[in-house]
Automatic annotation (TrEMBL):
Belongs to the myozenin family. InterPro entries: MYOZ (IPR008438). This is Myozenin 2. It comes from Denticeps clupeoides (denticle herring). Pfam families: Calsarcin (PF05556). Keywords: Phosphoprotein. One of its GO terms (molecular function) is actin binding. One of its GO terms (cellular component) is actin cytoskeleton.
């Protein structure tokens, strides 16, 4: 059996942290990434409405599929109620 499988989760985390400290070295300052920016909802929706954006095209395709499924589900429910 490998040594890795015999260690507990806490021991593996401590070992990983020690390896990271060894690689990073004592002189490297911590990188400060700052605060995450919040994009207003209007901007996000505007980005999704652009036809040139691949993400917006995928979003629209997903919306069409979900609308189709919703419409078909309503039709199926109506058909079962009629029968």
């Amino acid at each position: 059996m490998s040594q890795h499988s015999l260690m507990t989760t806490q021991e593996r985390k401590l070992q990983a942290a020690a390896i990271c400290r060894e690689i990073k070295g004592p002189d490297d300052p911590d990188m400060d990434l700052g605060r995450k920016l919040n994009a207003p909802k209007e901007i996000m929706l505007e980005e999704l409405s652009l036809a040139s954006n691949r993400g917006s095209r995928l979003f629209k395709m997903r919306q069409k599929r979900s609308e189709k499924y919703t419409f078909e589900s309503i039709q199926n429910a109506t058909n079962t109620d009629i029968m």
